[in-house]
Design brief:
The complex is a heterodimer of chains A (224) and B (241).
Chain A: H1 2-15, H2 22-40, H3 44-66, H4 72-76, H5 79-85, H6 90-116, H7 127-151, H8 158-186, H9 191-222
Helix pairs in contact in A: 1-6, 2-3, 2-6, 3-6, 3-7, 3-8, 6-7, 6-9, 7-8, 7-9, 8-9
Chain B: H1 8-39, H2 54-81, H3 84-115, H4 124-144, H5 149-162, H6 166-176, H7 196-240
Classes of the chains: A mainly alpha (224), B mainly alpha (241).
């Protein structure tokens, strides 16, 4: 447990330095949130009606961009080899990696979402629910994403391949995430919203429970 | 008997023996099925002659799912037991499945234009089949992008096993989200809610497409084996020089 804590602090420090990808994903997220309404046009009602979808699509695009950095550097400079011969199990390492990826890449996005939602004319009284659904839904993006990141480790063009092989798995999260907020906007706080949020939470829980094991298997195949 | 599917040479021999028969059956059944579906099946009282797209649309849709499960099962056996034939069959079946999925999507949208009024709807069944299409594309691109042959086989097998979560979603999408695509009418065990005059051409076309799949699979399987032989010969050449 103590080693896991140390690993966690080390990963957090490594990902929040200046060359970490959190600044890039923050910038990409802001740019896409600002660009999409400009492309759609300045019609206020229309933009606010598609705001949940825009926010979720931007989050998923951002996550696809940031996935290639999770294991790649550690694999190339040999840190992963050292993890493998240490007495930590690889499942725990995968869990810590995905969790740190969520903290460093999605938590900043969730923090700036209330500010950026001004551009989208999102109803301010629903902001709490939006942030709530983002916190419940985005962990599954990180935890499914480590599968793609570990599958493409030994490839040179990994940053182009990860989006192609991983985005079909993100589609259910996109559907239920944006569907929950849209139903909240149009129907109100009803059964439909709660049902979709609980499916979203279930997807997150399943991916948190299963993906570290699959990822550790894939990492072991890398060393065959 | 049990070694037939494991030893590449034996499977190759059997496939050389079987391939003309598969082509023959596929061709005969295709002619018979086309005759049945064009001239000997009733027109629908609502859809008119457009219902005849069914005889291409439904068999290719069934085959797209069947081939994906074939691919994933073969990948699983390849991963667990390390059989070369399983990997070969998995890699050989992927582009055929992609073709059948695109035939299903294209005929579906051609059918949807006169019946539903649009080429495309974001219905649960249509979306999940589109996701299956992207899984096929991802698998093919991913398995071709490795320089290390053995690693590529293993990783693409893992990818195809991950993608199998989509198959139950396709199957049950019409039952849970009852939007525009009609629910299953043939695979109900109790009594299929389709008339026997339409069921017979459907089954004949499905068998024809199945034999076509097996025929192309055999050709591609032989090609995969030859690629491996060339690789081994190259390795020997580099070793000697």
């Amino acid at each position: 447990m103590k080693n896991l804590k140390l690993l966690f602090y080390k990963e957090i420090k490594g990902s929040f330095n200046l060359k970490g990808s959190y600044i890039l994903s923050l910038a990409f997220f802001s740019i896409s949130i600002i660009l999409l309404p400009i492309g759609v046009g300045p019609n206020k009602g229309f933009i606010s009606s598609i705001a949940p979808g825009l926010i979720w699509v931007s989050i998923i695009l951002t996550s696809l961009l940031s996935l290639n950095n999770i294991f790649y550097e550690d694999f190339n400079d040999g840190t992963l080899d050292l993890y493998k011969i240490s007495h930590l199990s690889i499942v725990e390492i995968c869990f810590i990696k995905a969790f740190v990826h969520w903290i460093s890449n999605f938590l900043p996005l969730i923090i700036v979402t209330p500010i950026l939602s001004i551009f989208l004319d999102f109803p301010p009284n629903l902001l709490v629910y939006l942030v709530f659904s983002l916190i419940l839904g985005t962990p599954s993006l990180s935890f499914i994403g480590i599968l793609g990141s570990s599958l493409t480790l030994s490839l040179k063009q990994h940053n182009l391949l990860i989006p192609l092989i991983i985005f079909p798995l993100f589609i259910p999260i996109l559907i239920f995430g944006s569907g929950a907020i849209s139903s909240l906007m149009y129907i109100g706080f009803e059964d439909l919203f709660l049902r979709q949020v609980s499916i979203l939470t279930g997807l997150s829980g399943l991916s948190i429970a299963l993906c570290p094991f699959a990822c550790s298997y894939i990492l072991n195949v890398n060393y065959d | 008997m049990k070694n037939i599917f494991i030893i590449p040479g034996q499977l190759n021999k059997i496939s050389i023996f079987l391939s003309p028969w598969f082509a023959f059956f596929s061709f005969i059944l295709l002619l018979f099925g086309l005759w049945l579906s064009f001239f000997n099946s009733p027109i629908d009282y609502q859809q008119g002659n457009a219902v005849r797209i069914l005889y291409i649309h439904a068999p290719s849709a069934w085959l797209s799912m069947l081939i994906y499960s074939f691919l994933a099962i073969n990948s699983f056996f390849g991963l667990v037991y390390g059989h070369v034939t399983a990997f070969c069959l998995a890699r050989a079946s992927a582009p055929i499945g992609l073709t059948f999925t695109s035939i299903c999507l294209v005929t579906g949208s051609i059918w949807g234009k006169p019946m539903w009024g649009t080429w495309w709807v974001w219905d649960a069944r249509l979306t999940s089949v589109l996701v299956l299409f992207f899984f096929y594309i991802g698998y093919i691109v991913f398995s071709k992008s490795f320089t290390d042959f053995i690693k590529g086989e293993k990783f693409s097998s893992i990818l195809s096993i991950i993608g199998i979560v989509n198959l139950p979603i396709i199957k049950f999408s019409v039952d849970y989200w009852n939007t525009l695509h009609q629910p299953a009418s043939i695979s109900k065990l109790s009594s299929p809610s389709i008339h026997i005059d339409m069921l017979v051409p459907l089954i004949v076309m499905f068998l024809s497409f199945l034999f076509l799949f097996l025929y192309i699979l055999i050709l591609r399987f032989q090609a995969e084996l030859n690629i491996r032989k060339i690789n081994i010969n190259n390795m020997k050449f580099y070793k000697e020089s």
